[in-house]
């Protein structure tokens, strides 16, 4: 685990080589609200602020790049600057998620060797989960926070008729954060752009090139806010201590 300085002060014994890209460029239309879901409050503060502060609490993080929709990137919400502004950058989101990630990666300073990608729609990320993905990325491969599938899975046809029961033994539900050696992730995105490949998961872009990627234990607190009911669920999960 990275050591932390009092009030966020730098610990000179820790190398700041981690760059974080928080993807917050989505519209959140499935929540049915006109307000961006990453700006709505969860457990006492805006959802996006939870993630930014979680990563900035780490002294090994050199910079956090928040990728916002173009309309908000030029004039971010003032509460965002409750963070360490010296380690905060705001980038403009692309039309698709992978484009937003690339924009964020381009803003990382040269000293960053470990790149972490996190979805702002997962506001309750735990420090233990962050530790695990970064530790694996430092070993030279990608890492994805995930949880094993525990429900029985059914494959169905277009009429809803069950075709087969899927073996769940080796199946995991991918979450974020995901961490990678920076050069690996950048190469994966360059290749994806060259081949006109899009993805909602950065690990998938690395996998298609044969780069090693492992799963690490995530957390139920790492849930993604997608629909309106998820806000109440996130509020409840925030009260749980892991």
UniProtKB/TrEMBL annotation:
Matches recorded under Pfam families: IspD (PF01128)
Transferase recorded as keyword: yes
Annotated catalysed reactions: 2-C-methyl-D-erythritol 4-phosphate + CTP + H(+) = 4-CDP-2-C-methyl-D-erythritol + diphosphate
Residues annotated as site: Positions MEP for the nucleophilic attack: 168, 224
Keyword set includes Transferase: yes
Pathway this chain belongs to: Isoprenoid biosynthesis; isopentenyl diphosphate biosynthesis via DXP pathway; isopentenyl diphosphate from 1-deoxy-D-xylulose 5-phosphate: step 2/6
GO terms of molecular function: 2-C-methyl-D-erythritol 4-phosphate cytidylyltransferase activity
Entry's transmembrane regions: none
Enzyme kind, highest EC tier: transferase
Site feature location: Transition state stabilizer: 30, 37
One Gene Ontology term from the biological process aspect of the record: isopentenyl diphosphate biosynthetic process, methylerythritol 4-phosphate pathway
EC number: 2.7.7.60
Keywords: Isoprene biosynthesis, Nucleotidyltransferase, Transferase
Annotated family: Belongs to the IspD/TarI cytidylyltransferase family. IspD subfamily.
NCBIfam families linked to this entry: ispD
Task of the protein: Catalyzes the formation of 4-diphosphocytidyl-2-C-methyl-D-erythritol from CTP and 2-C-methyl-D-erythritol 4-phosphate (MEP).
Protein name stated in the entry: 2-C-methyl-D-erythritol 4-phosphate cytidylyltransferase
Organism: Gemmatimonas phototrophica
